[in-house]
Amino acid sequence: MAEASSTSTTETLLLPLRVWPKDDANKKSLPSLIQRINEQKGPFRSVTEASLEEEIRAQEARDAQQDEDAADDSGDEDEKPENEAGRRETLLKAKEEILKQVG
Hints:
- By secondary structure, the protein is mainly alpha-helical.
- Helices cover 74% and strands 0% of the residues.
- It contains five helices and no strands.
- The protein is flat and about 70 Å long.
């Protein structure tokens, strides 16, 4: 009976094997790149050195802000508890609850 249940489990666990998608040569071609840039930024005539520098500064500011946010989020975990005895009690209570559930 155990064999029948394991056989039905293996039969229902079918995984499709697909070929990894290949890079599209058209996406890397020059006409394709020019078309995508025109769609994203508009015609090249409207692009100036000043506008590109401004865009670079804005992107760097966004990246710096995201880095600060990530550092702030991880900084909360690095803080030491003020009351080590309280932390120890909390851990002991959590351990007891786990042991009760496990058996």
